[in-house]
Amino acid sequence: MTCGFSIGFRAESLYKHSQSTPPNTPSSSTMSKPVAFITGSSNGGIGAALCRSFITKGYIVYATARSVEAMSELTHENVRKLAVDVTDDLSVANGIKQVYAETEGIDILISNAGYSHVGPLLDIPFEEGLKVVQTNFFGFVRLVKNVVPLMAKRKQGTVVAIGSILGEMATPFQGFYNASKAALHSYTETLRMECQPLKVNVILVAPGSIKSNISVKSAYTVPEDSFYKSFEKQIKHVMYQSQTKGYGVMDTDEFASIVVRKVTSSKPPQYLSLGGFATKMWILKWLPRTAALAIIWSLAQQEPKPGTYGPM
């Protein structure tokens, strides 16, 4: 999840091997339309909202998620659904090949698929941590490897990485997510510089708290032998608080509309951060690092109000 001081288990989970809806032969009228390729597009999430917003801009949208069925609410004629697993080399390659076989090429690539596992670092199984990094970081790397060379040949295209403000300032009980987003941010900034001579735009989006259905699907229990058993309420609070008005959560469609407007403008920004807690995080970044982290840890230890550490 891309949120200010919270986490969800899945911003989007993805499925192995490329798989598509029954093929539709693109008409000459759709071939001339710009093409957006968006990962993590399942119902109720940021990706689906981005798909809808791109459609209003006249784009052909290739929406990807764990399965085609997970994108059932995307019914517009300009949406083409693919099942692409960003943790699988062949699945990503096949999905990209299909798009280039049906269109003149991808104009905008949005890497939005993500995964997280809440909890103290000492309690998170290595396999879960690896899954977080494989999805959030290496998933983007796979997309870049398959798409950017093709954009470079056309000397046009825009790559958008959906990071998180948690990639800029760590918060407790979501360490692997923080680390994966920090790696994503650094990689994206390097890619931006290296893509300048290739005429390919690279944009980093660092959302704060954005409304989604993630917290509803989440569940967490501190292991009985955990050193952090006394923090169970605080850990659950981290998961759910981002979806509250008090936390400044931004409407998903509003977020998507702003992002799409910015990335499709004649002068797209290199960096964009918006959503709940984004401004506060920006202020914290200007403080001495140790002071900022001390404030964050102090907030994490506070006893949450009743009803704010479970499903809303």
Automatic annotation (TrEMBL):
InterPro entries: NAD(P)-bd_dom_sf, Sc_DH/Rdtase_CS, SDR_fam
Protein family according to the UniProt entry: Belongs to the short-chain dehydrogenases/reductases (SDR) family.
Gene Ontology, cellular component aspect: endoplasmic reticulum
Key words of the record: NADP, Oxidoreductase
Pfam families: adh_short
Organism: Mycena sanguinolenta
GO molecular function: oxidoreductase activity
PANTHER family, alphabetized: NADPH-DEPENDENT 1-ACYLDIHYDROXYACETONE PHOSPHATE REDUCTASE
The protein's name in its UniProt record: NAD-binding protein
Domain of life: Eukaryota
Signal peptide: none
